[in-house]
DNA sequence: GCCTGTCCTTGCGCTGAATCAATTCGGGTG
DNA sequence: CACCCGAATTGATTCAGCGCAAGGACAGGC
């Protein structure tokens, strides 16, 4: 809700948080992330250093190898994070959605690139300011650590998906995972929004665009999903889940 | 050096650390991990809660899904961490070597299983004690967070390796990575120790045992490596690196 | 309305790695 | 030493997914 920011009187925090609130409405940071775990004081400090910004579709705003000068959180839209090989092969290491943090590694350089899949709204924090806030507030650091280890768990599951599972299993697991992520953000739905292109799914799943397309077609032919523009609709939840689960 | 522990007079810390040292000789924790970042006080506290233990080859000491009651660090030997699919397919998500920590996620349940590749010596910490130490010492937490984000970076690189690179590239990258890890522990060498079996390499790289074997044979035939029991010797460093690098 | 560009789907032949099947190697053990 | 057993290698064959190419759907510009 980028509009909400504009409507608020200036002396209220930019993100719309009221004193005592423990949820950052503008940054939409979910409980797993950071804000929800913070008291009003810490949230205030986060507000003090936040810069609201956004990126149009396809804009790259984090470049692998460059000095890590910002930490971001996504408030609207979807971001793809990826690594490029020198010959152009690409591996998407994750999609960041509203509530997710980027660039938490606290390393000097970014280990990946990031660009906007659609139009994206971001909270940007200066890394030095963010860093000293983290140092000053152990509780904050602890949440950050939990977020990072959760990311690690996801990454390990993704390794297993890519390393040991078939194309059909990968695509089904991706659909189920996307469905769950949207459910947390917008509530449950049989329609799974897929704002990214086929090539993004392919580069995320270690497949080619053709294989993703063929696999989706097969799932549709089997009556498990219905393919619609920018999304798929789940027709047979159980069968989809049974293909997706380990 | 498990022997070192035995030889020390009892009132000196079990790990052999002297007051003022900032490196835990028994736990052999590298700078990237935890100990090296801690002052003598924190190291003392770590000593107070450490239990030295070991695991014979093939023993499973962390079971995926079980309550996470311990945190470990490896002091001797190699540990494989893996996830199993219900049908028996296995993905090794990493090898832990001297100085590495296991079970840092601070989650309630382990997300992977771990067993000893060869004979392994471990420092075990009770998770609750470890947890409260972490909570009490922000500096410690910070190191832990750095360690976790480093693990995340490794995991993302592994995703790229498995998702987008050929069998030969995977094997070469694995050899180079193992070489660098041993170099940190024991110093540089042209001989790369490979205590794990072919099937472990295969399950780590998302390949089959036959493909790993054939690929090693090809590298040997090309004069890049020499295969010896439990290890390979690097003959042509440059060509190996050029296959391995992204 | 038509043209153009981009994305997606589909068909088809190809290929890298998987799978199946012998050997071979090497380290115990009696 | 001969035997055994698990690990590793090697060979033959298959196949899941790739790569290329053609065609279709859709959006934007004029």
Quick take:
The structure is a homodimer of 246-residue chains. Chain A is of the alpha+beta class.
Detail the topology: elements first, then pairings.
2 copies of one chain form a homodimer.
Chain A (H helix, E strand, L loop, with lengths): L1 H6 L32 H10 E6 L4 E3 L7 E7 L2 E6 L5 E7 L4 E2 L10 E4 L3 E7 H10 L1 H27 L2 H20 L4 E3 L4 H8 L3 H13 L3 E4 L2 E4 L2 H8 L2
Antiparallel strand pairs in A: 1-8, 2-7, 3-6, 3-8, 4-5, 4-7, 9-11, 10-11
Helix pairs in contact in A: 3-4, 5-7, 5-8, 6-7
Chain A binds a DNA duplex (30 and 30 nucleotides) through α7.
Strand order of the largest sheet of chain A: 1-8-3-6
Query: How many angstroms does the end-to-end distance of chain A come to?
Result: 36 Å
Count of helices of chain A? 8
Mean pLDDT of chain A: 84
What's the β-strand tally of chain A? 11
CATH class of the largest domain in chain A: Mainly Beta
Number of domain modules of chain A: 2
How would you explain this protein's 3D organization?
Two copies of one chain form a homodimer. Helix content of chain A is 41%, strand content 22%. The first copy, chain A, is of the alpha+beta class and 246 residues long. Chain A has two domains: 2-160, Jelly Rolls, CATH 2.60.120.10; 165-244, Arc Repressor Mutant, subunit A (Orthogonal Bundle), CATH 1.10.10. Chain A has a four-stranded antiparallel β-sheet. Chain A has a four-stranded antiparallel β-sheet with strand order 2-7-4-5. In chain A, a hairpin with a 5-residue loop joins strand 4 and strand 5. The radius of gyration of chain A is 19 Å and the shape is globular. Residues 1-39 of chain A have low confidence and may be disordered. The A-B interface holds A 83, 85-86, 89-91, 93, 104-107, 111-112, 134-135, 138, 141-142, 144-146, 148-153, 155-160, 162-165, 203, 205-206, 245-246 and B 83, 85-86, 89-91, 93, 104-107, 111-112, 134-135, 138, 141-142, 144-146, 148-153, 155-160, 162-165, 203, 205-206, 245-246. The structure holds a DNA duplex (30 and 30 nucleotides).
């Amino acid at each position: 809700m980028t509009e909400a920011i504009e409507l608020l009187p200036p002396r209220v925090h930019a993100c719309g948080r009221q004193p005592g609130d423990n949820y950052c409405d503008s940054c939409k940071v979910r409980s797993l992330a950071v804000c929800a775990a913070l008291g009003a004081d810490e949230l205030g400090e986060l507000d003090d250093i936040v810069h609201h910004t956004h990126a149009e579709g396809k804009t790259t705003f984090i470049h692998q190898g460059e000095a890590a000068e910002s930490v971001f959180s996504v408030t609207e839209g979807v971001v793809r994070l990826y690594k490029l090989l020198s010959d152009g092969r690409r591996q998407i290491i994750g999609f960041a959605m509203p509530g997710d943090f980027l660039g938490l590694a606290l390393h000097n350089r970014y280990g990946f690139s990031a660009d906007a899949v659609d139009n994206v709204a971001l909270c940007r924090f200066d890394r030095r300011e963010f860093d000293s806030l983290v140092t000053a507030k152990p509780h904050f650091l602890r949440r950050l650590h939990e977020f990072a280890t959760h990311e690690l768990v996801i990454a390990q599951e993704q390794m297993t998906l890519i390393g040991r599972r078939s194309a059909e299993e990968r695509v089904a697991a991706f659909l189920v995972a996307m469905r769950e992520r949207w459910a947390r953000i917008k509530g449950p739905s049989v329609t799974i929004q897929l704002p990214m292109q086929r090539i993004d799914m392919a580069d995320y799943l270690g497949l080619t665009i053709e294989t993703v397309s063929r696999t989706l077609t097969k799932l549709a032919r089997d009556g498990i999903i219905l393919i619609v523009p920018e999304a798929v609709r789940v027709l047979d939840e159980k069968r989809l889940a049974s293909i997706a689960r380990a």
